[in-house]
Each structure stands twice: as structure tokens, then as C-alpha cells.
Amino acid sequence: MTLLILGLALWTAGHVFKRVLPGVRETMGNAGKGVAAVLILAGVLAMIFGYKAAEFVPVWQPPAFMVHINNLLMLGAVFLFGLGSSKSPLRAKMRHPMLTGMVVWAVAHLLVNGDLASLVLFGGLAIWALAEMRIINASEPVYHRFEGGSLGGTVRLLVITVVVFAVIGGIHTWLGYRPFPG
Questions:
Q1: Which of 13, 94, 148, 182 is surrounded by the fewest CB atoms within 10 Å?
Q2: What is the pLDDT of residues 30-45, one digit of tens each?
Q3: Which residues contact 31 (CB under 8 A, 6 or more apart)?
Q4: Is 122 found in the same domain as 166?
Q5: Are residues 82 and 12 in the same domain?
Q6: What gap in Å lies between CA 155 and CA 158, rounded to an integer?
Q7: Number of domains present in the structure of the chain
């Protein structure tokens, strides 16, 4: 569990570095981006290996129907992740679509995983995303809405969402996690 928690800490440090220490980050230039990238990558690796190595400690037994709710939420999470860099006019409707997607992703996974390591991982990432939104809003109080976009951008986003969702489902199945009942 220690490695998992370390991974969350590194992930958080890499992401908030720019917001919490903007002067230091700016002084470092491209090296600052490199430091953040290394922290984030190390965090991801530590979370993966820490989660896989964590002892299974059951906290609750999720009902079987939660798989369906998880899949619906995951479709929404993938859409929100993509919305953040899409050419859809829907992008102007939400300040933090990718971070909101992270919260939805985390909640979806908490609905189907009732063990302690999942609570730490997915709960920790949900808390990080919510905190990151607050940090961004405090450091950049003026929000410049996305302008433009087209119906074609929205259609492209929807197609990409379905394809990425299917790929994620395939990867989960390949890894031995069955995301689709049947």
C-alpha cells in the first residue's frame, strides 16, 4: 500500500507543481516541464505496481448491477476526457472537462471495486481532481471560454469516444478484468 500512496503523492506533486510554485516552475523553463513529467510518470508506475501488489482487503461487496452503471459512467468519462481538447462547441460549457472526467472515472471504478486499495487509488485520484479544480480556479480566476467548434467536431468527439471506450474495454479484458457482463 505504501507504493500506491507514494504514487498518488508523486502524481499530485507533478500536477500541482506549476500551480503551487509558479515562480520556481517558470524559472526552470523546459526543465520544469521535464521534472513534472518525470514525477507524473513515476507516480503512474508506482500506482500501477502499488495497486497490483496491495493486499486485497474487502471493504464492501458491490452489487453486480453496478457494472452497468460503471460502463455508462465510463463512456461519459471518456467523452469528458476528449472534450477537453476537442473542436466541439460543447467544450465551452465546462471549465474543467478533463478533471471532471477523472472524477467520473474514479467514481465509476469505486462502484465496482470494494477493496481498500481501490478506495485509496480511485478515491485519492477523485480527491486530487477536485482539489486541482479548486487550485486552478484560485490561481486563474478569470475563465476564458473556448470559442468556436462545429457539429463536425462534436461528431468526431462522439466517434472517438466510442472507439476509445471499446479499446479500453478490450485492454481490460486482455488484462483479465471483465468490464462487460455476459
A1: 182
A2: 888 888 899 999 999 9
A3: none
A4: yes
A5: no
A6: 5
A7: 2
